[in-house]
Amino acid sequence: MEQNEKVYVHVLFLFPIICGALSTCPNIITRNDWNAREGLSKSLEQYPATHVLLHHSSTATCNSPANCAALVRSIQKIHMNRKRYRDIGYNFLIGEDGNIYEGVGWGKQGTHEDRLNSRSMGICFIGDYTSYLPNEAALGALQRLLECGVEDGHLTADYKLITHRQVTPTDCPGHRLYTHMRGLDHWVNAPYALDIVSRSTWGAAAPRFKNYISGTPTHLIVHHTVTPSCSGTDCYRRLKQIQADHINKKYGDIGYNFLISQDGTIYQGQGFGRKAAHAGRANGYSIGVSFIGNFETSSPSQASLNSLTNLISYAVQEGKLSSNYKLVGHRSVKATSCPGRNLYSEISKMKNFSSTL
Ligand SMILES: [Zn+2]
Ligand SMILES: [Zn+2]
Question: From ligand 1's centre to the CA of 54, what distance in Å?
Answer without folding.
Answer: 7
